[in-house]
């Protein structure tokens, strides 16, 4: 911050929304009025230095944050998340604000280190048959084959260049979401205990990034397409049809064996069988009734036997930076105006990180393959 710099009201609004504060709530925390904060955000008034200090402390940013030139914000059409039509405007605004700040952090990390190149092929679609083609094309593009399970879906998207994180306090109200930026961002939900559901969510968001660039999503049609992509990606048609038992009554032991082998929920398996006409509508209905009656609507049998996949790219980045020196990560965060409070909001842990080890050049290479 230099003398004569202009206070950026857009930056104040961005930080406020990222925390989910209303004008009234933030005014109460800094002992001022809603009207005055509104005037600061709209540029009608400039903030005195003492107020800037208070705002920085409450919002977890540096003083210079309020004098940065506003960055390109995440737009609604770049953000894919479900239930968009029924999600409160306040939650949508919070997601977009956090996404904008998280994108700023990731961009800064990207410029400081050599991260995996972004490699999400673009496959515009207009029918469900084209969705199937897109899913199989992606598996071929990433050399995953079409005959066996995806060993680690998290590594697939991270090796394709996406950064996976989560937004504490938001994930309980929205499902996993993705943001189509220069480096794609996937925000996973912490509210789902099932590893199978997380894998499906990641494949669903992968579908959005592949099929829906520049498309306003959240409607039944685009969500249905992303669901079908996830099903086809995790359970390729030919291999699945060969393994699925075609009997008069659903063969539950065989279906659970498929679940354990492919790491896909039973509900998704019977939906895939229905979509491929391997079971009748009556069998599909009976299967869903059985899951609901046996208490498996959200948590299914054998869920505990499948380990949850964890993001690895951000941890690898942070270990590398801490190996360079105790202040390396803090300096990068500070360069875009993030202090301890806001960094924790975006990443889920405070600065600095106490990782042990040394860095190896400036290349973050996590995996030899694509997750198989």
Helix content: 40-55%
The CA-CA distance between the termini, in Å, is: 48 Å
Largest sheet: 4 strands, mixed
Q: If you compute it from the alpha carbons, what radius of gyration comes out, rounded to the nearest whole angstrom?
A: 23 Å
N-to-C order of helices and strands? HHHHEHHHEEEHHHHHHHHH
Strand order of the largest sheet: 1-3-4-2
Oligomer: single chain
How many alpha or pi helices?
16
The residue-averaged pLDDT reads 89
- How would you describe the shape? elongated
Structural class: mainly alpha
Question: Summary?
Answer:
By secondary structure, the chain is mostly helical. The protein is 49% helix and 3% strand.
Report on this structure.
The protein is elongated. Strands 1-3-4-2 form a four-stranded mixed sheet, sandwiched between helices. It contains 16 helices and four strands. Helix 1 crosses helix 5. The N and C termini lie far apart (48 Å). The longest helix is centred in the N-terminal third of the chain and has 24 residues. With 372 residues, the chain is mostly helical. Helices cover 49% and strands 3% of the residues.
Describe the secondary structure blueprint for this structure:
Layout: H1 9-19, H2 23-29, H3 34-42, H4 49-59, E1 79-81, H5 89-112, H6 128-141, H7 153-159, E2 163-165, E3 177-179, E4 185-187, H8 195-211, H9 220-234, H10 237-243, H11 252-262, H12 266-275, H13 281-293, H14 313-324, H15 328-335, H16 340-347
Parallel strand pairs: 2-4
Antiparallel strand pairs: 1-3, 3-4
């Amino acid at each position: 911050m230099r003398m004569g710099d202009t206070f950026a009201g857009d930056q104040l609004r961005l930080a406020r929304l990222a925390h989910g504060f209303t004008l009234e709530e933030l005014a109460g925390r800094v002992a001022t009025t809603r009207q005055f904060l509104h005037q600061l955000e709209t540029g009608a008034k400039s903030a005195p230095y003492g107020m800037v200090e208070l705002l920085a402390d409450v919002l977890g940013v540096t003083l210079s944050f309020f004098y940065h030139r506003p960055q390109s914000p995440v737009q609604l059409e770049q953000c894919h998340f479900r239930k968009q039509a029924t999600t409160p405007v306040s939650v949508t605004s919070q997601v977009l604000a956090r996404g904008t700040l998280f994108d700023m952090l990731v961009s800064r990390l990207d410029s400081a280190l050599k991260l995996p190149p972004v490699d999400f092929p673009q496959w515009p679609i207009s029918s469900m048959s084209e969705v199937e083609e897109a899913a199989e094309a992606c598996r071929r593009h990433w050399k995953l084959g079409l005959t066996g399970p995806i060993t680690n879906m998290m590594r697939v998207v991270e090796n394709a260049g996406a950064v996976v994180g989560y937004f504490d306090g938001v994930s309980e109200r929205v499902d996993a979401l993705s943001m189509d930026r220069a480096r794609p961002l996937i925000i996973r939900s912490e509210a789902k205990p099932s590893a199978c559901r997380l894998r499906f969510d990641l494949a669903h968001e992968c579908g959005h990034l592949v099929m829906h660039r520049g498309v306003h999503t959240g409607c039944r049609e685009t969500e249905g397409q992303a669901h079908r992509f996830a099903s086809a990606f995790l359970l390729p048609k030919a291999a699945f049809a060969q393994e699925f038992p075609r009997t008069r009554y659903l063969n539950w032991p065989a279906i659970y064996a498929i679940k354990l082998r492919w790491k896909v929920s039973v509900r998704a398996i019977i939906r895939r069988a229905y979509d491929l006409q391997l079971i009748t509508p009556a069998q599909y209905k009976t299967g869903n009734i059985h899951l609901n009656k046996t208490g498996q609507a959200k948590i299914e049998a054998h869920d505990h036997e499948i380990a949850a996949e964890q993001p690895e790219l951000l941890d690898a980045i942070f270990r590398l930076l801490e190996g360079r020196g105790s202040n390396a990560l803090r300096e990068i965060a500070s360069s875009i105006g993030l202090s301890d409070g806001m960094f924790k909001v975006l990443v889920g842990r405070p600065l600095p990180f106490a990782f042990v080890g040394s860095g190896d050049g400036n290349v973050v290479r996590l995996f030899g393959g694509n997750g198989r």
